[in-house]
């Protein structure tokens, strides 16, 4: 029975080409995730799931394993995370491995912390939850949000909240996009992550930056000196 990290890293990113191995703060982006997984000392194996030979080679030089190449049907723009992790678990079981706790770590999470991996795992094991994942507060109260129409007019989603003070509204959280602990069975059964059977491991907003667009990347580069030192 083993504890496994799986880092999904496909080669076909469109908005930021080759973003998983593009250099960020002095090393390939995926290196930050691999390094945190190694430093926390929790994992029996650190696996990179990729369809790309160059990513596979770089991952191996950084200390991760690439025991299989991810099939094309799990490597397009529409593939969700859960099937990718389930595929990795299946592949390891076929090798004779017996994964119990599996942590999906995103390859574009340069502000991930080995300490957070360890603390969140302790939280995960204290409960009967199927998953435990990083979350953070929205920067602005979403219950006072509005949409902007084509003519630039606005309409509130919840007009009844216009007169309410922000501190009187519920605090809303979102996925921080760093990592997700889960029982192997939960991944393989396709259980939803954002559900009552999951735990949120809350981290501060200043350590969170999703990286999907060139603007996201530029913002993360501005944040990096303060966070990474």
Automatic annotation (TrEMBL):
Claim: ATP-binding is one of the keywords in the record: no
InterPro entries: CMP-NeuNAc_synthase, Cytidylyl_trans, Nucleotide-diphossugar_trans, PseF
Keywords from the UniProt entry: Nucleotidyltransferase, Transferase
GO MF annotation terms: N-acylneuraminate cytidylyltransferase activity
Cross-referenced Gene3D superfamilies: Spore Coat Polysaccharide Biosynthesis Protein SpsA, Chain A
A Pfam match: CTP_transf_3
Organism domain of life: Bacteria
NCBIfam families linked to this entry: PseF
Protein name: N-acylneuraminate cytidylyltransferase
């Amino acid at each position: 029975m083993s504890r496994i990290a799986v880092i999904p890293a496909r080669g076909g990113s469109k908005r930021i080409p080759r973003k998983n191995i593009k250099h960020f703060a002095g090393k390939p982006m995926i290196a930050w995730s691999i390094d945190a997984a190694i430093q926390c000392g929790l994992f029996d194996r650190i696996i990179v799931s990729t369809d790309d030979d160059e990513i596979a080679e770089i991952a191996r030089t950084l200390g991760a394993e690439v025991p299989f190449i991810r099939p094309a049907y799990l490597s397009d723009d529409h593939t969700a995370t859960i099937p990718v992790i389930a595929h990795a678990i299946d592949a390891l079981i076929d090798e004779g491995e017996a994964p119990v706790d599996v942590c999906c770590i995103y390859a574009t999470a340069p502000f991930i912390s080995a300490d957070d991996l360890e603390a969140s795992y302790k939280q995960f094991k204290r409960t009967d939850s199927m998953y435990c994942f990083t979350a953070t507060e929205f920067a602005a109260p979403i219950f006072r949000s509005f949409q902007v129409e084509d003519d630039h007019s606005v309409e509130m989603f919840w007009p009844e909240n216009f007169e309410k003070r922000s501190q009187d509204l519920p605090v809303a959280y979102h996925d921080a996009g760093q990592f997700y602990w889960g029982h192997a069975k939960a991944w393989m059964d396709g259980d939803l992550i954002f559900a009552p059977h999951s735990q949120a491991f809350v981290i501060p907003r200043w350590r969170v930056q999703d990286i999907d667009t060139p603007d996201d990347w530029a913002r993360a580069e501005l944040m990096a000196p303060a966070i990474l030192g």
